[in-house]
Amino acid sequence: MRDLAAGIVIGLIIGAIAVYAITATPSGEEFCPASPGSSSLDQQTIESVTKKLNNLVHQNNPEVNVRIADYSLYGEVYKVRVDFYDENGTLESYDMFLTGNGSLLFTNQIDLTKLSEEQKEERINVSADDDPYRGAENAKVVIIEFSEYACPYCAKFATEVESRILENYGDKVKIVFRDFPVHGEISYFAAEAANCAGEQGKYWEIHDMLFENRGEWIEFKNNSLVANQTAIYSYAQQLGLNVDEFKACIESGKYREEVEKDLQDGISYGVKGTPTFFINGKMVVGYRSYEQFAALIEEELQKVNS
Questions:
Q1: pLDDT band of 19, cuts 50, 70, 90
Q2: Does 189 lie in the same domain as 76?
Q3: What is the pTM of this model?
């Protein structure tokens, strides 16, 4: 009898959990995913996911608890065994699938390339925070970009598309840049360097140089990407910055929290990699050509003007 009751309860719980974020990356996109990157989940992610699951379960079933009992790398996600248990022991165990940053959990092996039209049209209230922007302050179309300097597709947007958007829609569009470091320490270093250059009034200048010169300051050592700090310091010198103050700012780590906040905000909005854009709250994942952006902007302008 207890087993039957447990099965009913767990079935209801699974239905309630279903998926705590549904945002997908279309197949073949020019996109830098926040992929697992290793065969191990970090303890902080495990604890965060476990807490989130328990909060969901306890809303209606306070006597049932959840734990991640085991996991293994499964393609670009992790396959995790989730135990449901109470004071008498384990009730049921289920296999679920988890993204490396813990932002997406789903109960079946689903095709992430297939989104419903309703999901594609979903509008998300995304904060621009106090992050830097280009374009018109009170623009009708606000594009919030989650990006990072080590991602080639972000660089492609920055060097090939953004200037054309601003040239043709600069009085109608506001483009906000928010950091989403998917490549680890190299991404954090570059993001913090840009913020430190901003203290001396050269944020956008070094921002552009980092994207334009990826081949100079990005190096591959010991199977990982690392920043050539000497190259980045040389950019500061070329821009006329006080290099000693610039270095001291980076070394202090004063902008680490700011960069981390952007990352966590992005995760909360369903961002899974870079570049990800929110055009008046509508998510667009991966690199898009100027022509594609122009069509999206025109569509938004028609909506706000109608």
A1: very low
A2: no
A3: 0.67
